[in-house]
Design brief:
Keywords: Membrane, Transmembrane, Transmembrane helix. It comes from Marinobacter vulgaris. This is CDP-archaeol synthase. Pfam families: CarS-like. The protein has 160 residues and is an all-alpha fold. It has one domain (2-29, 40-152). It is built from five helices and no strands. The chain has helices at 2-25, 52-69, 73-96, 111-124, 129-152. Helix 1 (2-25) crosses helix 3 (73-96). The two termini are 28 Å apart. 34% of the residues are buried. The model has no long low-confidence stretch (mean pLDDT 92).
């Protein structure tokens, strides 16, 4: 049960640390990962909201948390990186579908960024598949339900 909570916290850190880093650092180190490149459909590859600052801050936050909880720095860094890669995959698909970076895509906005790192955790930590599924569902539901509140509190820029 504790491991489920720790993994959930890591998913929140991977996705929340970039938001905090953007607030603290402003426009510093905000270069887009895609470098402004466009796909053959003329739309941005990922979009300007996927930054190197976000990738580094989310990955480091997970790494440091995992180190302090005994899961190990390498596991935490990989977990955070996979979460953010999942987020980038979502952004890539949303751009291909013509959705703006702030456009809502329930499930697509949550599942890849939770599932990819949880697959790593499944193998690395020898977890039960139900634990993996449970954490993915918990993250997805909490993201859908809490994002509007975080928006009203001024923490998020979009209500989803």
């Amino acid at each position: 049960m504790l491991i489920s909570l720790e993994l959930f916290v890591m998913l929140v850190l991977a996705n929340g640390a970039p938001v905090v880093a953007a607030r603290v650092l402003g426009r510093r180190w905000s270069a887009a990962i895609d470098g402004g490149r466009r796909w053959r459909d003329g739309r941005p590859l990922l979009g300007s909201s996927k930054t190197w600052r976000g990738l580094v801050s989310g990955t480091l936050a997970c790494g440091l948390f995992a180190l302090t909880t005994g899961m190990g720095l390498v596991f935490g860094l990989l977990f955070g990186l996979l979460g953010l890669i999942g987020d980038m995959i979502s952004s890539f698909i949303k751009r291909r579908a013509g959705l703006a970076s702030s456009g809502r895509a329930i499930g697509l906005d949550q599942i890849p960024e939770a599932l990819l790192p949880m697959i790593l955790a499944w193998y690395w930590l020898d977890l039960n598949g139900l634990v993996v599924a449970g954490v993915v569902v918990l993250f997805t539901l909490s993201n859908i339900l809490l994002s509007p509140l975080l928006y009203r509190l001024g923490i998020r820029h979009q209500p989803h």
